[in-house]
Protein: Protein kinase domain-containing protein
Organism: Alexandrium monilatum
Amino acid sequence: EVQGLQQGVFGCGVPQGGMVLSFGFGLCGPFPGLCGLPDGHRQQTSAGGVFHTTNYGGGHYDDDELALSSQAGPEVILISERGSGVEAQEASPGKAPPTQGIDDASLKASMNELASRVGRWDAGRFTFVERLQASPQNFGCIDKMEDSRDGRRVVVKRMPNAWIRASPAEFERTYEKASERPWLDLGILMELNRRRYPWACELLDVLRDREHTYVMTTLAMQGDLFSWCTSKPAPGAQREGIIAPVAAQVLSAVRWLHNLGVAHRDLSLENVVLAEDNGSTPQVKLIDFAMATTSRMCRRQLRGKPSYQAPEMHTEADYDAFLTDAFAVGVVVYALAVQGYPWDSTDRRSRCQGRRCAEEFGLRKLLALKRQKNCGGKCIIEVMSRDLVSLLVGLLEFDPGQRFHLGEDCMQGKEQAWRSVWLSNWLQESELGREARKAEIEAVSTRCGDSDEQPSVDSEAEPKVPRGKARQSFPVPACVTKVSKLRRSRHCKA
C-alpha cells in the first residue's frame, strides 16, 4: 500500500531493496500536506479544506472563494528578513537581462559542485522556531530556524538521505521517473544567484547528517501569494489596484527566467513568495524549481498543479514550456483578482464545466456565467475591469498559437510581437508595467514600423460563437490595434 501511494502521489516507485518510508494517513482536512498529499492538491479538498465543492445549474455556477482554513499553518517563505546577500539589480522588465543563459552543462556543473560541498549539520547551531509546512514530495518538512552565528532566521528544508541521495547522478539512477528533482531545484537556484537574478531567494548552505540533508535558504516575512491574497479587499477596482504591481513583478520575473533559458513549469500562488520592501509593494520571489527545465519544447511531461496546467500538456504533441508558463501566470493573476480558480483541471477527460465552457465558448463567456460568493452575487465579469478581462482572455487562451507571451527575446516575429502581454493597458496600474509597456511599444515599432498610434492588445468584445457549438478554430482572443503601415500591408489584409 505504501509503495502504491508513493507511485500514485509522488510519481516514483520504491527502488528494489530500497528504503520504505512510512507516514500518517488521514482524511483530507484543512492541511492536506500532513496526510500525504502534495501541496498543490489542497485546492482539490472538500469541506474543511481550502476549497469547497462547486455547484452547477440554472445557467451559471457558484464557486466558493479561495480561503485558507483558520487551522492551516503558515506558508513556506524563503526570503531573508535582512534582504538577499546578492546585490539586487534594477527590477525593470524594460532592462535586458544578462545575456549568458543557463544551459545543461552549467546546471550539471552547479549540481555536482553543491553535492561535493555539502557540509556537516551542527544541531547546536540552529534553534527551532516553528514548523512551516510538511514537504511530502520530498518526504520531509520545512522549518523556520534561528542561526546562532548571526541571529538570522532562515528556512531549513529537511529531506531524508534515502530520497535526495548523495549526488544528482545517484538520484537520477534511483528515481528516474520522478517529477520532483531536488538537485535540479538547488542547481537552478545557485545559477540564478550567480547571475544576480533579482526574483529568487538566496541559497545559503546545504548540510547533512547520517539520516537527513538540510537545505538552508533565506526567509520571507510576508508569506506566499496564496496567503497574501486572502487578506485583500473583495474583487473590484480597489483590489485590482493592489494586485497590479505584484502581478507585473510576477510577469517580469518569469520573463527574465525564460530569457535565461529556464521554464519553471510549476508556477502557482504557493510558489511565489513576498519579501518586505522599503516601498509599499512587496518584492516578488519565485521558489521551487524542482520541475523546471532548460528545454523549451517538451513532450509527455505533465508538470504543475491541475488548475495551472495548460491544456496542451495533456496531449501527446510537443508543447512550448514558455507558453505553458504564461498560461499558469494567467491563472495566478485570475486567482489574485477574484480569490478563486477558473477551473479545477484543463484535462479534457475531466468533468470540469469551467474548462468545458472556456474551451468551447471562450473565457469571456465563462466569466459572464461564473459567480462567487465574495463577488456579492454578481458574475465575475461584472466586478472585473475591461482591461483585466482582456489580459486574462489572452493569457488563458486554450490555443497556444494565439496565447499571449511574456515578451521574451525569442518572441521576435511580427505576428508574435502583437501578442505581448506588456501591451495590455491593465498593467499600466504599476510603474513597472508602465516602463515595460513603453519598452515593448518601442520594440514593436522598431520591428513592425513606426506610427503615431500606440499598439494595444485590449478589446471589449470577443467573436460570438453559436450556443451549443464548439469552436472549430481558435480566433485571436483580443483584437489587436495595429499601426497604419501594417494595416495597409497585404499581409495584414490576408
